[in-house]
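Illustration: LysR family transcriptional regulator.
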Amino acid sequence: MELYQLRTFVTVAQQGHLTQAAELLHLSQPAVTAQIKALEEQFGLALFDRYPGGVSLTEAGKLLMPEAEQILAQARDLLHKAKALQGEPKGKVRIGTIGVPARLKLGAWLSLLRKEFPLITVQTTHGISVSILNEVRKKSLDAGFYLGRNPYQNVMTLPLGEIGFCIALPVSLAEEYQNADWAKLGEAPWLGLSQYTSLADISQELWRSQNIAPKVVGEFDEEATLLELIKTGVGIGILAERTAQRFASDGSIVLWRNGEVVTRAPLQFIYSGERSSDPMIHKLCSTLSAVWQLE
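Result:
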């Protein structure tokens, strides 16, 4: 029995699907199947029931799963402790960023990280929240920033704060909608949001809570694009409070009800649960906590 076989067993059990497990493990599906078969032969037990939509643990598999998870956790802790004994933390870390860097306090954080741990090299990749989350899950990124609720138990979060959102209007629609009620707002053209951005979930929850189903214009995934389309009169949309207030002050957009915050979403720093005891992740979180003045 090898650690990589146990890792495959646990991943397949968590995903409930061989193809999805193979993707996360960066293996082919036949390789995953072969590892599970070898483990079943060593144990003399069937670990999974197969069905057209995926796999599920047998009763024996359910009993062995906690032990397998514990062995993997102990192996990770041993590796992380060994790395910690090597002295000064060093190496490259890949961080996923979203939105506006200033909103993340990215400059202050990376400056402090470089000052305290000069041998750590940071590589940033900019994207939208859902893509950053998926890349962290796949371990293509070591960590990243995420806006919204984290739906995965195997992804850990460091809550940083909340971002408020306002409804922004084109100047051409201000007279009709600036002080309108929600029913009236539901009749306005709204800028649609890509399913791959957290803003899509935030907007959908807002619309449901106000019992409206607006007519959507297009599908967009970046705040800068939304802002430009609002400025040019394409439709209305939600913007982060600070961004909305900044551009409302120069008259390029108008805010509904003078900038009332209509919803909030958590901003979080995310990383794989398998790296909770990793000294490198600890350094990232400790310096980020200092910059954000977290208790």
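Reading the tokens back as a structure: The CA atoms of residues 54 and 187 lie 43 Å apart.
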